[in-house]
Write the structure tokens for this entry.
Amino acid sequence: MSLPVPVVWSEDCLRHEPGGEVWLGVLDQGTEVPARAVVLRDALAAAGAPVVPARPHGEQILRAVHDPDLVDHLAGVWQAWVEAGFPAQYGRDRVVPYVFPTAGLLAGLPLRSPPAVHGRAGRFCYDTMTLVGPGSWAAIRGAVDAALTAADLVSSGERVAYALCRPPGHHVTRAAYGGSCYLNNAAAAAQALRTAGARRVAVIDIDAHHGNGTQMIFYERPDVWYGSLHVDPGAGWFPHYAGYASERGRGDGDGFNRNLPLPPGTGDDDWLAAVDALCAEARALGPDAVVVSLGLDAAATDPESPLQVTEAGYRAAGRMVASLAPTVLIQEGGYDLPSLGALAVAALDGAAAGAHG
Ligand SMILES: [Zn+2]
């Protein structure tokens, strides 16, 4: 048996070593580790999927979905951190912001770009758990290149392609990163599909957490519909401030956003019913292409969410989403190393069946 889904991959994705995450004031070991990507790649290759190297892309698409200042900041912040002496003189070996220009702080003042890098760091980052180190930028770009290469494959006729993106991306808004994400790989893929000629793209986000970044990037646009099922942020889960059912889009994008928050403990039956509901809504729009934010952290085995989805659930979800239209699968979360590979194989296997069935 061989898995007929190209797996796009960049070796650079291993270079991001966040070195943990500061959660509630304490540096934890963190679960967004390079080994995730190795486990995923090895399991998919062992299942017979062809592994395709990511091709380098320019920054045109990136600068369309992100504030160019965010892209420039991420490209240069580590070097600025080193030049300011934080690793060598102060023992701060990762970029971690400590002050954030919230709406309440500014109270109408213009958002400045402070010259000091430790002040500027919080302008572009909204949490303390998304650290930047020496290899981060190479990995961030590698992940975007994987997403854009997978979008190229689908635009040129492939029915389904998977980008093994690490770090993940769906928590990154137009101008701010967080949630262990730095640039929005799924948004870049959706924009690339539009640029290549798709009139309407549906993004279906099945990560355990709400993809607040993708939602907000397309919130006022009718050409990219965003639908997500995720653990209810109102029940105490990240991203806390977004992901509620009342968020339906704004302006021209009104009605083109759909959130289905689920209670902690939701298992296959109710989870798949929500996937089915999103697919029905997406199908009604007649999308030319689909982008799936494939988080594997809704699995019962995952330490980062209280959802209880099985391998069979992921296989069924893969089949449903990929039957809609040509599909780009983007790796998002998924943190339980022993079960991660089998979950990915199940999801891609289902997607292959949906695409070719
Ligand atoms: Zn997640």
About this structure: The longest strand covers residues 224-231. The beta strands are 7-9, 21-23, 26-28, 51-53, 160-163, 201-205, 224-231, 257-262, 289-294, 327-331.
